[in-house]
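Structure ticket #2291
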Amino acid sequence: MEIGDDNSIGQGGTQIKANRSGAHIEIGSRTRLLNGPELLGGTTVSDGCQVLGSIVVQSTYLGGGADHTAADPDRRGAVLKGSGLARGLTLDRGEVLNGSGEFRQAEVERQRAYHPDAPTEDET
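Resolution: structure written out below.
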C-alpha cells in the first residue's frame, strides 16, 4: 500500500483493505476519500482523484490530475461518487462516474457536465 501527501481520508469513514496476496493499493496525493468508501486490492486512486460516498472500489484505476479546487474540471483527477460497487473500471483525468448500485463504464461522464460554466484550461 502506498499513500501520498495532503489527502483528505476518512470523514464519514474510509476502509482500505490490502487483505489478499498481491492486493496492491495506491493512493496518490491531494485525494479525497470521504463518506464511506472501501478500497480493495488492485486499485489505484491517482493524484487529485476523489471517491465520495459508500462505494466499494475494487480493481479500479482512477487517472490523476489536479485536485478538486482546480478551476477547469477537465484538468481534475477522476471522480467516483454515489453508492454501490465499482469494479474493474478505468476513469481518466476529468471524468466522473455518479452511480448507484453497480457502477458501469458506459455511464462515465466528463466532469464539465456538472460544471458547464467553469473556465477551460486556456482561460485559467
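Closing remark: The longest strand covers residues 79-87.
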